[in-house]
Write the C-alpha cells for this entry.
Amino acid sequence: MKLKSVLRLVSLVMLIIAIVFLSYALTHPEFGTVFYIGSLEIGPAIWRTFYLIYAIVMVVLFAASFSTKEKK
C-alpha cells in the first residue's frame, strides 16, 4: 500500500473517531468529569489539552498525505 493511501486512511479513521467522540461528548456532559490517576487530577484543562493534541495530529496526518512523494 502506498504511503499516501496509508496516511489518508489513518487520518480518515481519526476523523471518524473524532466525530463519534464529539457527538457523544455533546450529548453526555458527564463524560468530561474529573478523575484521578494516582495523585494526578485529570480535569477540564487536561482534557482540553488532550483534545487539542488529537486535533493537531489528525490535521498533520491528513496534510502529510497530500505532501508525500511517491518512491520509484
Q: What stands out?
A: The longest helix spans residues 3-27.
